[in-house]
Amino acid sequence: MTKPDLKFTLLVPTMNEIIGMKAVMPKIDRKWVDQILVVDGGSTDGTVEYAREQGYDVYEQKTKGLRFAYIEGIHSVKGDIVITFSPDGNSLPERIPALVEKMKEGWEMVIVSRYLDGAKSYDDDPITGFGNWMFRHLINIMFRAKYTDPFVMFRAWRKDLFFRLDLDLEETYSFEERMLHTTIGVEQLFTMRVAKCKLPYSEIPGDEPKRIGGIRKLQVFRWGAASLYEVFAEQIRWPKSRLGVNYAKRQQAASAR
Ligand SMILES: Nc1nc2c(ncn2[C@@H]2O[C@H](COP(=O)(O)OP(=O)(O)OP(=O)(O)O)[C@@H](O)[C@H]2O)c(=O)[nH]1
Ligand SMILES: [Mg+2]
Fold this sequence. Notes:
257 residues; 7-stranded mixed beta sheet; alpha/beta; Spore Coat Polysaccharide Biosynthesis Protein SpsA, Chain A
């Protein structure tokens, strides 16, 4: 099952993270991955200029919101595997090589868990700590899964999985976003749909240090409410028989053109 020839893209979403970027990005050895892609959501603090100076690939988002960093940025990904990495200090760069090695075993998704084998989040506050604990148990019960960290950004997944799970489609997010007047992330649906489809996933441990500089963009209550809705809605919407169906249709259409 090992896949030694996979190519890896580090996808780094940024929104005014110049302080974190300067502290964290130099710790990443260019040899660890095949591409570093910074996807920027409209920074005005020099993040984009810094990323260009370092020679990273840069994509500037057209639509606001974290999920569009993925939905738009994925078209600039050259690798077979995407590693999503927060440059605000929360993701430990030294875990990247272990994550790459683990993905080469052939998993669809590997999460760098803040709660596995003694790993710890130093960024959780009482509310996010409780939310992560509660959703871990709820998701595991509702999707018969064994996650320790369903929400963390720092993880690796096969690029095609994003499309096979329909995570690029507006209809996937539109109801809860309209109800809650927000734009949500992709992590929670990613985690739930992988478990629902019984795809092979794994986790490795990795601490989450405190955020360095910048401003937190997490909307605890709105995103928490969206996640709670999704845990139940996903029991009936998007049956697992839809895995890859849209993707295959689009592939066929593209090759017919
Ligand atoms: N491209 C893009 N990046 C974003 C957007 N919102 C947040 N980010 C970046 O995504 C990364 C993670 O976001 P955070 O604000 O740290 O969210 P969080 O990690 O859940 O919250 P903290 O606990 O405060 O770190 C950071 O590098 C942000 O700058 C967005 O709309 N577009
Ligand atoms: Mg963060």
